[in-house]
Amino acid sequence: MYHKSVLLEESVDALNIEQRRDGVFVDATFGGGGHSREILRRLGPKGRLIVFDQDGEALENIPEDGRITPVRSNFRFLENHIRYLKIGKADGIIADLGVSSHQFDTAERGFSYRFDSPLDMRMNQNSTVTAADVASDYSKDQLEKILRDFGEVENSGKVASAICSFREKLPGKRIETTAQLSQALEKFFNAQSERKFLGKVFQALRIEVNQEMRALEDLLEGSSRVLSDGGRLSVITYHSLEDRIVKNFFRSGKAEGKFEILSKKPLLPSDEEIASNGRARSAKLRYGERTVKA
Questions:
Q1: d(CA 36, CA 65)
Q2: 76-80 contacts: CB < 8 A, separation 24 or more?
Q3: pLDDT tens profile 53-73
């Protein structure tokens, strides 16, 4: 399985498709296509689904359905593509911000410390900057900032210094593999803390490589302009940085309109879902409905 969708029923329920079965819906993060397939199941014969993914491997899973239009692009450019397709307004947008199981489990993509592989982490493989470039070329201060801000890594200054010291000993002074990065930091963790510590470090580098926070902000702002009045936005986050941005966006409103927050508290996966899919453990769903700003 390419990827097992998290909070599948709940996140698609939030779009309220039954009230606009012949409308236009957007899956901003196609991934394994679980959410898209559920949307198509509920969509009427005249409905339309636009799916975005910057990973070409993900779009190989597009179902054969005349109602679906694939777009290979980062979702930060959603508004531009919707205009290009001359769609007008969308009735619902869903975004699952997690990295797909396929990306984590494919060693050569470099997303996981579990494999000795190239330190890559690019979601869009046409991008030029890899995690190896970040680990090898960033200054100590730059590394400290992304470790602190994007990974919430404790002692981020010392961790950044360790990366810089280690790379000086390597050929070309470059950290090129996941194993080398883990080796550079081995004094900071033991067998019990390895998963949590390295998970934070790898998350920080991945967010920087893919500019995930800026992309999320662009997606949210674009959504406020793309959605029709009464249109729904459903977003699944996986760490506090993402969740904070989404929560603040729903609360703040924009000049083009504001959102009625329909999830006063984030929806969380059930114990049963977490037991069957460990990657659901940190997921949170927030959703709202766009309304005309008074």
A1: 11
A2: 76/214, 76/215, 76/216, 76/218, 76/219, 76/222, 77/218, 77/222, 78/26, 78/28, 78/52, 78/219, 78/222, 78/223, 78/226, 79/222, 79/223, 79/225, 79/226
A3: 988 777 888 999 999 999 999
- List the structure tokens of 123: 């979601």
User: Was domain 102-210 assigned CATH 1.10.150.170?
Assistant: yes
What distance in Å separates the CA atoms of residue 283 and residue 277, rounded to the nearest whole number?
A: 11
Angle made by CA atoms 124, 62, 66, in degrees to the nearest 5: 130
Residue 122 structure tokens: 């690019």
**182, amino acid identity:** S
Retrieve residue 173's tokens: 């002074």
Sequence ranges of the domains in the chain = 8-96+212-291, 102-210
- String of DSSP letters for 212-238: HHHHHHHHHHHHHHHEEEEEEEEEEE-
At residue 111, does pLDDT exceed 90? no
Lookup: tokens for 256: 């083009």
Count of all residues that appear for the chain in the document:
294
Indicate whether 112 pLDDT > 90.
no
Q: 245-253: long-range contacts at Cβ-Cβ below 8 A with a sequence spacing of 24 or more?
A: 245/213, 245/216, 245/217, 245/220, 246/216, 246/220, 246/286, 247/286, 249/217, 249/220, 249/221, 250/286, 250/288, 253/293
- Spatial separation of the C-alpha atoms in residues 214 and 71, rounded to whole Å: 20
**What is this structure's pTM?**
0.90
pLDDT tens profile 163-209:
999 999 999 999 999 999 999 999 999 999 999 999 999 999 999 99
Amino acid at 68: I
CA distances from 201 to 46, 143, 178, 183, 207 (A): 46, 10, 11, 13, 10
Q: Which residue has the tokens 């196609």?
A: 30
Which tokens in the block code for residue 241?
A: 């940085």
Tokens 């679906």 correspond to 68
Q: Which CATH class name applies to 8-96+212-291?
A: alpha beta
